[in-house]
Design brief:
heterodimer, A: alpha+beta, 4-stranded antiparallel β-sheet, 28% helix, globular, B: alpha+beta, two-stranded antiparallel sheet, 38% strand
Protein backbone atom coordinates (compact mmCIF):
# COMPACT_ATOMS: atom_id res chain seq x y z
CA UNK A 1 0.00 0.00 0.00
CA UNK A 2 2.04 2.91 -1.31
CA UNK A 3 -0.43 5.54 -0.07
CA UNK A 4 -0.15 4.41 3.53
CA UNK A 5 3.60 4.72 3.38
CA UNK A 6 4.31 1.02 3.74
CA UNK A 7 5.93 -1.12 1.14
CA UNK A 8 4.99 -4.66 0.32
CA UNK A 9 7.75 -6.52 -1.43
CA UNK A 10 6.34 -9.23 -3.62
CA UNK A 11 8.35 -11.76 -5.48
CA UNK A 12 7.83 -11.27 -9.27
CA UNK A 13 6.54 -14.86 -9.63
CA UNK A 14 4.10 -14.39 -6.79
CA UNK A 15 2.96 -11.03 -8.14
CA UNK A 16 2.23 -12.56 -11.51
CA UNK A 17 0.28 -15.40 -9.97
CA UNK A 18 -1.65 -12.98 -7.74
CA UNK A 19 -2.30 -10.63 -10.65
CA UNK A 20 -3.64 -13.30 -12.94
CA UNK A 21 -5.71 -15.09 -10.29
CA UNK A 22 -7.55 -12.05 -8.99
CA UNK A 23 -7.65 -9.99 -12.22
CA UNK A 24 -6.05 -7.20 -10.21
CA UNK A 25 -3.49 -4.96 -11.90
CA UNK A 26 -1.04 -3.05 -9.75
CA UNK A 27 -0.81 0.61 -10.67
CA UNK A 28 -3.88 0.77 -12.88
CA UNK A 29 -6.68 0.21 -10.42
CA UNK A 30 -8.10 3.03 -8.34
CA UNK A 31 -7.81 3.31 -4.57
CA UNK A 32 -11.25 1.89 -3.93
CA UNK A 33 -10.43 -1.35 -5.72
CA UNK A 34 -7.10 -1.58 -3.93
CA UNK A 35 -8.78 -1.09 -0.55
CA UNK A 36 -11.24 -3.82 -1.42
CA UNK A 37 -8.43 -6.19 -2.32
CA UNK A 38 -6.59 -5.41 0.93
CA UNK A 39 -9.83 -5.86 2.91
CA UNK A 40 -10.36 -9.18 1.15
CA UNK A 41 -6.85 -10.33 2.00
CA UNK A 42 -7.31 -9.27 5.62
CA UNK A 43 -10.63 -11.15 5.80
CA UNK A 44 -8.93 -14.28 4.41
CA UNK A 45 -6.16 -14.06 6.99
CA UNK A 46 -8.62 -13.49 9.84
CA UNK A 47 -10.65 -16.46 8.66
CA UNK A 48 -7.46 -18.54 8.71
CA UNK A 49 -6.96 -17.43 12.32
CA UNK A 50 -10.54 -18.42 13.19
CA UNK A 51 -11.88 -14.88 13.58
CA UNK A 52 -14.97 -13.51 11.87
CA UNK A 53 -13.72 -9.93 12.02
CA UNK A 54 -10.77 -7.94 13.24
CA UNK A 55 -11.01 -7.41 17.04
CA UNK A 56 -10.92 -3.76 18.09
CA UNK A 57 -10.11 -3.81 21.81
CA UNK A 58 -10.75 -0.66 23.83
CA UNK A 59 -8.07 0.65 26.18
CA UNK A 60 -5.37 -1.14 28.10
CA UNK A 61 -5.61 -4.77 29.09
CA UNK A 62 -3.77 -6.76 31.73
CA UNK A 63 -2.24 -10.03 30.54
CA UNK A 64 -2.52 -12.65 33.30
CA UNK A 65 0.88 -13.91 34.37
CA UNK A 66 -0.13 -17.56 34.00
CA UNK A 67 -1.22 -16.98 30.39
CA UNK A 68 2.08 -15.27 29.59
CA UNK A 69 3.95 -18.25 31.09
CA UNK A 70 1.82 -20.71 29.14
CA UNK A 71 2.45 -18.74 25.94
CA UNK A 72 6.23 -18.93 26.48
CA UNK A 73 6.03 -22.67 27.16
CA UNK A 74 3.88 -23.32 24.09
CA UNK A 75 6.30 -21.41 21.88
CA UNK A 76 9.20 -23.41 23.26
CA UNK A 77 7.64 -26.81 22.59
CA UNK A 78 6.01 -25.82 19.26
CA UNK A 79 2.92 -28.06 19.36
CA UNK A 80 -0.67 -26.98 18.80
CA UNK A 81 -2.14 -28.70 21.88
CA UNK A 82 -2.21 -26.77 25.14
CA UNK A 83 0.31 -28.40 27.43
CA UNK A 84 -0.39 -27.21 30.95
CA UNK A 85 0.60 -29.41 33.88
CA UNK A 86 -2.22 -30.26 36.24
CA UNK A 87 -5.12 -30.05 33.83
CA UNK A 88 -6.42 -32.54 31.32
CA UNK A 89 -6.79 -30.42 28.20
CA UNK A 90 -4.96 -32.59 25.70
CA UNK A 91 -6.76 -31.52 22.55
CA UNK A 92 -7.46 -27.90 23.55
CA UNK A 93 -5.83 -25.23 21.43
CA UNK A 94 -7.47 -22.10 22.86
CA UNK A 95 -7.37 -20.57 26.33
CA UNK A 96 -9.78 -17.75 27.16
CA UNK A 97 -9.65 -15.65 30.29
CA UNK A 98 -12.70 -14.23 32.08
CA UNK A 99 -12.52 -11.82 35.01
CA UNK A 100 -15.28 -11.57 37.61
CA UNK A 101 -18.04 -9.17 36.60
CA UNK A 102 -18.64 -6.70 39.40
CA UNK A 103 -22.28 -5.93 40.19
CA UNK A 104 -24.52 -4.62 42.99
CA UNK A 105 -24.99 -8.19 44.13
CA UNK A 106 -21.37 -8.18 45.34
CA UNK A 107 -22.35 -5.87 48.24
CA UNK A 108 -24.67 -8.53 49.64
CA UNK A 109 -21.66 -10.67 50.55
CA UNK A 110 -20.29 -8.93 53.61
CA UNK A 111 -18.32 -11.88 54.96
CA UNK A 112 -14.54 -11.94 54.32
CA UNK A 113 -14.44 -15.63 53.50
CA UNK A 114 -17.53 -16.07 51.36
CA UNK A 115 -18.08 -14.47 47.98
CA UNK A 116 -19.98 -15.03 44.75
CA UNK A 117 -18.05 -14.77 41.49
CA UNK A 118 -19.80 -14.13 38.20
CA UNK A 119 -18.44 -14.71 34.70
CA UNK A 120 -19.93 -13.96 31.31
CA UNK A 121 -19.18 -16.88 29.02
CA UNK A 122 -21.77 -16.02 26.37
CA UNK A 123 -19.10 -14.92 23.90
CA UNK A 124 -17.41 -18.34 23.65
CA UNK A 125 -18.00 -19.37 20.02
CA UNK A 126 -20.57 -22.16 19.74
CA UNK A 127 -18.23 -24.27 17.59
CA UNK A 128 -15.65 -24.61 20.36
CA UNK A 129 -15.63 -27.69 22.57
CA UNK A 130 -14.82 -27.23 26.23
CA UNK A 131 -11.97 -29.44 27.42
CA UNK A 132 -11.23 -27.96 30.85
CA UNK A 133 -11.97 -24.93 33.02
CA UNK A 134 -10.21 -23.63 36.08
CA UNK A 135 -10.70 -20.85 38.57
CA UNK A 136 -7.52 -19.06 39.52
CA UNK A 137 -7.38 -17.33 42.90
CA UNK A 138 -4.46 -15.29 44.20
CA UNK A 139 -3.54 -15.17 47.87
CA UNK A 140 -1.83 -12.91 50.40
CA UNK A 141 0.63 -14.69 52.69
CA UNK A 142 -0.19 -14.28 56.37
CA UNK A 143 3.35 -14.20 57.70
CA UNK A 144 2.44 -12.76 61.08
CA UNK A 145 0.15 -15.59 62.13
CA UNK A 146 0.43 -15.58 65.92
CA UNK A 147 -0.20 -19.25 66.48
CA UNK A 148 2.38 -21.04 64.29
CA UNK A 149 0.82 -24.49 64.69
CA UNK A 150 0.00 -26.33 61.47
CA UNK A 151 -3.62 -26.56 62.51
CA UNK A 152 -4.01 -22.79 62.64
CA UNK A 153 -2.08 -22.13 59.45
CA UNK A 154 -4.25 -24.47 57.41
CA UNK A 155 -7.50 -23.66 55.71
CA UNK A 156 -9.62 -24.89 52.85
CA UNK A 157 -11.08 -23.27 49.76
CA UNK A 158 -14.39 -24.68 48.59
CA UNK A 159 -16.02 -23.80 45.28
CA UNK A 160 -19.72 -24.32 44.70
CA UNK A 161 -21.69 -24.06 41.51
CA UNK A 162 -24.82 -22.02 42.24
CA UNK A 163 -27.43 -24.24 40.63
CA UNK A 164 -30.30 -22.04 41.85
CA UNK A 165 -29.87 -18.77 43.74
CA UNK A 166 -31.77 -18.36 46.97
CA UNK A 167 -34.53 -15.82 47.57
CA UNK A 168 -34.30 -13.96 50.89
CA UNK A 169 -36.93 -15.21 53.31
CA UNK A 170 -38.40 -17.67 50.82
CA UNK A 171 -35.95 -20.29 49.61
CA UNK A 172 -32.38 -21.38 50.21
CA UNK A 173 -29.92 -21.56 47.32
CA UNK A 174 -29.10 -24.90 45.70
CA UNK A 175 -25.32 -25.31 45.70
CA UNK A 176 -23.16 -28.07 44.25
CA UNK A 177 -19.64 -28.50 45.60
CA UNK A 178 -17.35 -28.96 42.60
CA UNK A 179 -13.83 -28.62 44.00
CA UNK A 180 -11.91 -27.88 47.17
CA UNK A 181 -8.27 -27.42 48.10
CA UNK A 182 -6.32 -27.29 51.32
CA UNK A 183 -4.33 -24.07 51.74
CA UNK A 184 -1.46 -22.94 53.91
CA UNK A 185 -2.18 -19.34 54.85
CA UNK A 186 1.53 -18.51 55.18
CA UNK A 187 2.00 -19.13 51.44
CA UNK A 188 0.99 -16.81 48.61
CA UNK A 189 1.02 -19.14 45.60
CA UNK A 190 -1.99 -18.85 43.29
CA UNK A 191 -4.43 -21.73 43.61
CA UNK A 192 -6.31 -23.24 40.70
CA UNK A 193 -9.60 -25.04 41.15
CA UNK A 194 -11.29 -27.30 38.64
CA UNK A 195 -14.65 -25.79 37.73
CA UNK A 196 -15.27 -27.78 34.56
CA UNK A 197 -18.70 -29.20 35.61
CA UNK A 198 -20.09 -25.71 36.27
CA UNK A 199 -18.81 -24.26 32.99
CA UNK A 200 -20.24 -27.19 31.02
CA UNK A 201 -23.63 -26.43 32.55
CA UNK A 202 -23.35 -22.70 31.81
CA UNK A 203 -22.36 -23.26 28.19
CA UNK A 204 -25.34 -25.57 27.70
CA UNK A 205 -27.66 -22.91 29.05
CA UNK A 206 -26.43 -19.36 29.66
CA UNK A 207 -29.58 -18.60 31.68
CA UNK A 208 -28.44 -21.08 34.32
CA UNK A 209 -25.19 -19.24 34.90
CA UNK A 210 -25.57 -17.88 38.45
CA UNK A 211 -21.85 -17.89 39.16
CA UNK A 212 -19.63 -19.65 41.66
CA UNK A 213 -19.69 -19.39 45.41
CA UNK A 214 -16.22 -19.45 46.97
CA UNK A 215 -15.98 -20.29 50.66
CA UNK A 216 -12.67 -20.10 52.53
CA UNK A 217 -12.51 -21.94 55.85
CA UNK A 218 -9.81 -21.89 58.54
CA UNK A 219 -8.90 -19.94 61.64
CA UNK A 220 -6.96 -17.19 59.87
CA UNK A 221 -9.25 -16.95 56.83
CA UNK A 222 -12.24 -16.27 59.07
CA UNK A 223 -10.77 -13.04 60.37
CA UNK A 224 -8.60 -11.76 57.50
CA UNK A 225 -8.72 -11.89 53.70
CA UNK A 226 -6.11 -14.46 52.70
CA UNK A 227 -7.66 -15.49 49.37
CA UNK A 228 -8.29 -12.44 47.19
CA UNK A 229 -11.95 -12.54 46.27
CA UNK A 230 -12.97 -8.90 46.11
CA UNK A 231 -11.42 -5.50 45.58
CA UNK A 232 -10.58 -3.60 48.76
CA UNK A 233 -12.19 -0.19 49.17
CA UNK A 234 -8.85 1.64 49.02
CA UNK A 235 -7.28 -0.64 46.42
CA UNK A 236 -6.20 0.92 43.16
CA UNK A 237 -7.73 -0.58 40.01
CA UNK A 238 -4.31 -1.38 38.51
CA UNK A 239 -3.29 -3.31 41.62
CA UNK A 240 -6.57 -5.21 41.69
CA UNK A 241 -6.40 -6.46 38.07
CA UNK A 242 -3.22 -8.35 38.97
CA UNK A 243 -4.78 -10.25 41.86
CA UNK A 244 -8.45 -10.54 40.89
CA UNK A 245 -10.07 -13.97 40.45
CA UNK A 246 -9.88 -15.24 36.91
CA UNK A 247 -11.65 -18.05 35.11
CA UNK A 248 -9.77 -19.83 32.31
CA UNK A 249 -11.51 -22.01 29.75
CA UNK A 250 -9.58 -24.49 27.61
CA UNK A 251 -11.40 -25.20 24.37
CA UNK A 252 -10.83 -26.90 21.07
CA UNK A 253 -11.94 -24.80 18.11
CA UNK A 254 -12.06 -27.87 15.83
CA UNK A 255 -9.73 -26.30 13.29
CA UNK A 256 -7.58 -29.39 13.10
CA UNK A 257 -7.87 -33.09 13.70
CA UNK A 258 -5.72 -34.71 16.34
CA UNK A 259 -3.21 -37.19 14.97
CA UNK A 260 -4.90 -40.58 15.01
CA UNK A 261 -3.09 -43.80 15.91
CA UNK A 262 -3.10 -44.83 12.23
CA UNK A 263 -1.44 -41.57 11.18
CA UNK A 264 1.21 -41.91 13.87
CA UNK A 265 2.05 -45.45 12.69
CA UNK A 266 2.07 -44.27 9.08
CA UNK A 267 4.43 -41.43 9.95
CA UNK A 268 6.76 -43.79 11.80
CA UNK A 269 6.81 -46.23 8.86
CA UNK A 270 7.60 -43.45 6.43
CA UNK B 1 27.22 -16.26 1.79
CA UNK B 2 29.11 -19.53 2.11
CA UNK B 3 25.83 -21.35 2.71
CA UNK B 4 24.29 -19.71 -0.37
CA UNK B 5 27.26 -20.68 -2.52
CA UNK B 6 26.97 -24.24 -1.26
CA UNK B 7 23.27 -24.38 -2.24
CA UNK B 8 23.79 -22.78 -5.64
CA UNK B 9 24.39 -25.07 -8.56
CA UNK B 10 26.83 -24.54 -11.42
CA UNK B 11 24.06 -23.27 -13.70
CA UNK B 12 23.19 -20.57 -11.11
CA UNK B 13 19.93 -22.15 -9.97
CA UNK B 14 19.47 -22.66 -6.30
CA UNK B 15 18.61 -26.01 -4.77
CA UNK B 16 15.39 -26.49 -2.83
CA UNK B 17 15.74 -24.96 0.61
CA UNK B 18 14.01 -22.87 3.28
CA UNK B 19 13.99 -19.08 2.86
CA UNK B 20 13.17 -16.44 5.48
CA UNK B 21 9.73 -14.82 5.44
CA UNK B 22 8.83 -12.67 8.43
CA UNK B 23 5.32 -11.34 8.96
CA UNK B 24 5.47 -8.24 11.15
CA UNK B 25 2.11 -7.58 12.82
CA UNK B 26 2.92 -3.87 13.15
CA UNK B 27 3.30 -3.65 9.35
CA UNK B 28 -0.19 -5.01 8.81
CA UNK B 29 -1.62 -2.87 11.62
CA UNK B 30 -2.53 -5.79 13.87
CA UNK B 31 -0.30 -4.88 16.80
CA UNK B 32 -3.21 -3.21 18.62
CA UNK B 33 -4.93 -6.55 19.26
CA UNK B 34 -2.11 -9.08 19.00
CA UNK B 35 -0.16 -8.88 22.26
CA UNK B 36 2.50 -11.46 21.40
CA UNK B 37 4.45 -12.32 19.34
CA UNK B 38 5.33 -9.06 17.52
CA UNK B 39 5.45 -11.02 14.29
CA UNK B 40 6.27 -14.50 13.18
CA UNK B 41 8.78 -16.35 11.09
CA UNK B 42 6.68 -18.13 8.49
CA UNK B 43 9.54 -19.14 6.11
CA UNK B 44 8.87 -20.52 2.63
CA UNK B 45 10.36 -23.19 0.38
CA UNK B 46 11.88 -22.39 -2.95
CA UNK B 47 14.49 -23.86 -5.23
CA UNK B 48 15.23 -26.48 -7.80
CA UNK B 49 14.85 -30.24 -7.35
CA UNK B 50 17.75 -31.56 -9.44
CA UNK B 51 18.47 -35.11 -10.56
CA UNK B 52 19.78 -37.08 -8.70
CA UNK B 53 17.91 -36.01 -5.57
CA UNK B 54 20.22 -35.71 -2.58
CA UNK B 55 19.27 -37.23 0.77
CA UNK B 56 18.90 -33.88 2.49
CA UNK B 57 16.11 -32.95 0.08
CA UNK B 58 13.76 -35.27 2.01
CA UNK B 59 12.36 -36.73 -1.18
CA UNK B 60 9.89 -39.56 -1.36
CA UNK B 61 10.32 -42.63 -3.58
CA UNK B 62 7.68 -41.17 -5.85
CA UNK B 63 9.58 -37.87 -6.18
CA UNK B 64 12.73 -39.80 -7.12
CA UNK B 65 10.84 -41.69 -9.85
CA UNK B 66 9.22 -38.47 -11.11
CA UNK B 67 12.59 -36.69 -11.25
CA UNK B 68 14.11 -39.68 -13.03
CA UNK B 69 11.35 -39.65 -15.67
CA UNK B 70 11.70 -35.88 -16.03
CA UNK B 71 15.44 -36.17 -16.57
CA UNK B 72 14.90 -38.56 -19.49
CA UNK B 73 11.79 -36.94 -21.01
CA UNK B 74 10.92 -33.45 -19.67
CA UNK B 75 7.78 -33.15 -21.79
CA UNK B 76 6.22 -36.17 -20.10
CA UNK B 77 6.10 -35.02 -16.47
CA UNK B 78 7.00 -31.86 -14.57
CA UNK B 79 9.82 -31.74 -12.05
CA UNK B 80 9.23 -32.64 -8.42
CA UNK B 81 8.16 -29.61 -6.37
CA UNK B 82 10.03 -27.90 -3.57
CA UNK B 83 7.49 -27.90 -0.73
CA UNK B 84 7.35 -27.77 3.09
CA UNK B 85 7.91 -31.22 4.55
CA UNK B 86 7.80 -30.25 8.21
CA UNK B 87 5.73 -27.48 9.78
CA UNK B 88 5.47 -26.18 13.31
CA UNK B 89 2.77 -24.45 15.34
CA UNK B 90 2.78 -20.92 16.66
CA UNK B 91 1.09 -19.50 19.75
CA UNK B 92 -0.62 -16.14 19.77
CA UNK B 93 -1.78 -13.98 22.66
CA UNK B 94 -4.46 -11.54 21.60
CA UNK B 95 -7.28 -9.38 22.89
CA UNK B 96 -10.84 -9.98 21.76
CA UNK B 97 -13.57 -7.38 21.29
CA UNK B 98 -14.22 -7.23 25.03
CA UNK B 99 -10.55 -6.82 26.01
CA UNK B 100 -10.40 -10.41 27.22
CA UNK B 101 -7.09 -12.13 26.73
CA UNK B 102 -7.03 -15.21 24.51
CA UNK B 103 -4.16 -17.62 23.97
CA UNK B 104 -4.48 -19.63 20.79
CA UNK B 105 -2.24 -22.17 19.14
CA UNK B 106 -2.24 -22.46 15.38
CA UNK B 107 -1.06 -25.63 13.73
CA UNK B 108 1.22 -25.76 10.68
CA UNK B 109 2.05 -22.06 10.55
CA UNK B 110 5.83 -22.04 10.17
CA UNK B 111 8.04 -24.08 7.86
CA UNK B 112 10.63 -26.21 9.62
CA UNK B 113 11.99 -28.11 6.64
CA UNK B 114 11.67 -28.21 2.86
CA UNK B 115 11.95 -31.09 0.47
CA UNK B 116 11.23 -32.33 -3.03
CA UNK B 117 7.87 -34.06 -3.39
Amino acid sequence: NANAGTSLRIDPDTATAFSSSSSYRFGTTDRKDRDQVIAGMEASLLSLLGLAKRPRPQGQAYIPHSLRELYDRQNAIGIADIAKPGIHARSANTVRSFPHIESDLDHKFQSLNRFRLSFDLSKIPSGETLQAAELSLSRVAMLDVEDKSVKHKRGRVLVYDIVRPGVKGRSKPILRLIDSKVIDTTKNATINLDVHPAVVRWIESHQNNHGLLVHVTGTVARTREHVRLRRAVDEHKEAWVVSRPMLFTYTNDGSYEMASADQIIDRRTR
Amino acid sequence: RAALRKNRRKDGRENCRRHPLYVDFADVGWNDWIVAPPGYDAFYCHGDCPFPLADHLNSTNHAIVQTLVYSTKPSMVPKACCVPTALSSISMLYLDEENKVVLKNYQDMAVLGCGCR
